[in-house]
């Protein structure tokens, strides 16, 4: 099993395996057909309050955001469902809409899944 992350705007590939959107809001300018999703796990995304705070803050607060998001993930049924799915599939790709490929919630979620037993790709 391997968990990877990828921008939802990037072209789908057969090697993506199960494609799961992990944004709370649907990404602008992309159709459901083009996204080629298998699932939309919006409840695994940061809470609306945390997401709003993060988007209003400067980039220097990413570490604080990551700590708070990890706290939200602990015990989150949607995150636990992703962990279970990762154990059942060879490859799971978490899709996100953020422009920054390193400092985004999908990277935090991928790392959290890795800390809880899933194999992750970096």
Class from secondary-structure proportions: alpha/beta
Largest sheet data = 4 strands, parallel
Write down the secondary-structure element order.
EEHEHHHEH
| Helix share, percent | 25-40%
The largest beta-sheet arranges its strands as 1-4-2-3
Give a brief outline of the structure.
By secondary structure, the protein is α/β, with parallel strands linked by helices. The chain has helices spanning 32-35, 48-56, 62-73, 77-88, 105-115; strands at 2-7, 18-21, 39-40, 91-96.
Structure notes:
The protein contains 5 helices and 4 strands, in the order ββαβαααβα. With 122 residues, the chain is of the alpha/beta class. A 4-stranded parallel beta sheet has the order 1-4-2-3, with helices on one face. α3 crosses α5. The protein is globular and about 35 Å long. The protein starts with a strand and ends in a 7-residue tail after the last helix. It holds the Pfam family DUF488-N3i.
Write the layout of secondary structure elements.
Blueprint lengths: L1 E6 L10 E4 L10 H4 L3 E2 L7 H9 L5 H12 L3 H12 L2 E6 L8 H11 L7
Parallel strand pairs: 1-4, 2-3, 2-4
Helix pairs in contact: 3-5
């Amino acid at each position: 099993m391997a968990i990877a992350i990828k921008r939802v705007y990037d072209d789908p590939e057969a090697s993506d395996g199960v494609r799961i959107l992990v944004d709370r809001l649907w990404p602008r300018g992309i159709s459901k057909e083009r996204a080629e999703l298998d699932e939309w796990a919006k409840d695994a995304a940061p809470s609306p309050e945390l997401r709003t705070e993060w988007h209003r803050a400067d980039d220097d607060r990413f570490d604080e955001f990551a700590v708070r998001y990890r706290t939200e993930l602990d015990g989150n049924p949607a995150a636990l469902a992703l962990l279970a799915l990762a154990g059942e599939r060879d490859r799971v790709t978490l899709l996100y809409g953020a422009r920054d490929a390193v400092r985004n919630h999908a990277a935090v979620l991928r790392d959290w899944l890795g800390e809880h037993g899933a194999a992750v790709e970096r």
